[in-house]
Design a protein that fits this description.
- The complex is a heterodimer of chains A (66) and B (374).
- Chain A has four helices and no strands.
- By secondary structure, chain A is mainly alpha-helical.
- The termini of chain A are far apart.
- Chain B has 374 residues and is α+β, with helices and mostly antiparallel strands.
- Helices cover 27% and strands 7% of the residues of chain B.
- In chain B, helix 10 (142-149) crosses helix 11.
- The longest helix of chain B has 13 residues, at 94-106.
- The chains are: A mainly alpha (66), B alpha+beta (374).
Chain lengths: 66, 374
């Protein structure tokens, strides 16, 4: 019974004092999206790879309002 | 505005996790894809680049429900005036109209905005790229968002980038777009408007300059004399950019383009084409717009067979306002000065019929004044 009280107090402490987004934030940091999209090096590597395989997406003709 | 380098466009600022409102939302919740897949090619399968267009409900609606409710009616999203205007000019034949619609889809309808394309990234129509690494911008940065699209006319007018034309006095006071064009206006109020001038919460000069007709106001006589006769811009705008002969098409690689003739600076006072209770003035500033009978010729001949139903000199509110301008320096700088008015001779023969309602007849040009107010 004593242990349950201690566990309950620890859980209550966590819920009150630790911000909720800390857990979620950590989860996001671990996602592949976040890891890659926060690394300029990785993105440079990938965008170069894409540029080599994809043709130009923009017409060389003049455009309107810029 | 220079486009961002490809990697810069998609580089996320890690500080987004500290955003108390948006930091809790996982990438996958809005963009889809597979966040556990280490292979970027397969991880991006099904990814939605802009999850806020055309429907922002899933991405923004839960929290911003009031804004989201009206979102699709915002002129920046709906582009309703485009459709209405082309409908009036277009050939009523269904087959031809469909081809015009196809051309519109290829060219015109790309120039829209969205929640994301104002608050998170640069608009796609100017090649996109995250603003400050996906950190949410409550107020969209003027030069990366607003004038990125509204560049050749508004930006150049506002910052005095047209040769020989002074910047807008509001720009000189470092007023940003949102000072006049509020979030409420941008987000829409749920009503379908035929043009931006009808928008109820749009900018109004009197919003700040409400006292110009009061007895104590400077130039009260001049303001009272012209009340309801000339729009504010008639006296306070400077020459602005005009365009013509827009033609759209595809190059040999199938990439879309639009071409116009060289633009020119001009200042023309014409008859107000959108006279209403809100805009009762007889005279207003008119800008020549790029549309042409042959704009969609690449897709279909005679696509705009009802071209003459609307003028090609259109109501304008140039963004280069000054208290003192050449036309308001003294009464006769404008009165009797034919060169300021849109006359029949200023309109190309092929557009005369379209502009019949806005051309100023000689007898309506204000006569020279003998009396000058002190």
């Amino acid at each position: 019974m004593k242990y349950w009280k201690v566990i309950g107090l620890v859980v209550a402490f966590c819920l009150v004092f630790i911000p909720g987004n800390l857990f979620i934030g950590q989860a996001s940091e671990e996602s592949q999206c976040f890891k890659c999209h926060t690394s300029a090096e990785k993105l440079t590597e990938i965008t170069r790879e894409i540029a080599q395989t994809r043709p130009a997406l923009k017409c060389a003709e003049p455009e309107g309002e810029r | 505005m220079e486009p961002l380098a490809p990697h810069e466009k998609i580089l996320v600022n890690g500080k987004i996790l500290e955003d108390e409102n948006h930091g809790e939302i996982a990438c996958v919740d809005c963009h889809g894809g597979n966040p556990d897949d280490p292979n970027w090619k397969t991880a991006h399968e099904g990814v939605i680049k802009d999850p806020t267009y055309p429907d922002a409900t899933k991405a923004c609606g839960d929290c911003h429900d009031e804004i989201n409710k009206n979102y699709t009616k915002s002129l920046h999203v709906s582009l309703k005036p485009f459709t209405l205007i082309i409908d009036k000019r277009a050939n009523p034949n269904d087959v031809i109209r469909n081809k015009v619609e196809r051309a519109m889809n290829h060219h015109c309808y790309h120039c829209h905005s969205s929640c994301g394309q104002c608050h998170i990234s640069r608009p796609t129509s100017v090649e996109g790229g995250l603003l400050d690494g996906h950190l949410f911008q409550k107020k969209p940065p003027m030069q990366e968002v607003c004038t990125a699209c509204h560049g050749s006319r508004i930006q150049k007018e506002y910052f005095g980038e047209n040769k020989g034309v002074l910047p807008d006095v509001h720009g000189e006071k470092d007023m940003k777009c949102e000072k006049c064009h509020t979030g409420e206006e941008m987000h829409g109020d749920g009503k379908d408007y035929a043009n931006r001038y009808e928008v109820e919460n749009g900018p109004k000069c009197f919003g700040c300059h409400e006292g110009v007709y009061s007895r104590e106001a400077k130039n009260v006589i001049t303001h009272r004399i012209h009340r309801g006769k000339a729009s504010c811009q008639v006296c306070h705008a400077q020459p602005y950019k005009n365009c013509s002969a827009c033609h759209v098409g595809e190059d040999k690689n199938g990439l879309t383009f639009c071409k116009t003739k060289a633009s020119w600076l001009d200042f023309k006072i014409g008859l107000n084409p959108l006279k209403s209770e809100k805009r009762p003035e007889e005279f207003a500033i008119l800008r020549h717009i790029p549309v042409d009978r042959g704009t969609f010729d690449y897709y279909v001949k005679d696509g705009l067979s009802n071209f003459d139903t609307l003028p090609t000199w259109k109501l304008a509110t140039p963004h280069n306002i000054r208290r003192k301008t050449s036309q308001n320096s003294h009464c006769n700088a404008c009165h009797g000065n034919e060169s300021l008015f849109l006359l029949e001779k200023d309109v190309e023969d092929k557009e005369k019929e379209a502009n019949r309602g806005v051309v100023v007849p000689a007898n309506l040009i204000p006569r020279k004044q003998k009396w000058q107010p002190k």
